[in-house]
Design goal:
By secondary structure, the chain is mainly β. The protein has one helix and twelve strands, in the order αββββββββββββ. It is elongated.
């Protein structure tokens, strides 16, 4: 069963092209589903690389940038795995989440810094050896994220940990799903 089926979207909703629905980051391939060009499910297929890690540090990867205008995020889902390359952080269990600000600096968790996990709260990974973390967050009506026209449009996949070793390039693979509404703009 697809994510679109899970949240009750009719199977006639299909991929849309030619719409101003934002841009994806490096290593991220988007597919947008919509019937009316205002209500979207965006599937981001991720095959990217996080910046180098060592010690207690937060890092992030730009996944998506919403288009200009006002939008509301209703549901966010991650189905992601971290894939170490050097064998030094294999057993690490970092926090992962979606935020409007890229994680950076000397942090071992995401929830201590505004914007690091404001779209999907931090989740603890099982390891950095390819095990997926699969979490869906449905925002209650009062908790829906409304991004004003002048607001930050970026969506980052963020991770933080007291890393066991120095990793030059940790892969991040899987999917990010966003259900959102374009309330104004193009």
């Amino acid at each position: 069963m697809s994510y679109a089926d899970v949240i009750g979207w009719h199977k006639s909703y299909g991929p849309r092209s030619g719409l101003a629905v934002g841009t994806s980051g490096v290593g991220v391939t988007p597919k947008h589903y919509s019937v009316d060009g205002k209500h979207f499910i965006t599937k981001l297929t991720v095959n990217g690389v996080l910046p180098a890690v060592t010690g207690s540090i937060g890092v992030g990867l730009l996944a998506f940038t919403f288009p200009a205008g006002v939008h509301s995020v209703k549901v966010a889902r991650i189905k992601l795995a971290l894939q170490q390359a050097d064998g030094l952080i294999t057993a690490d269990t970092p926090e992962i989440g979606l935020g409007s600000v890229i994680a950076s600096g000397a942090v071992a968790v995401l929830n201590g810094t505004a914007g690091f996990d404001d779209i999907l709260t931090e989740q603890t990974m099982t390891d950095c050896d390819g095990t997926e973390t699969d979490v869906t967050l449905v925002m209650p009506t009062a908790g829906q994220i409304v991004n004003e026209a002048a607001g930050v449009k970026a969506v980052y996949i963020n991770a933080a940990d007291a890393w066991a070793g120095a990793e030059a390039a940790c892969g991040v693979v899987g999917e990010v799903w966003l259900e959102w509404v374009q309330l104004s703009g193009t």
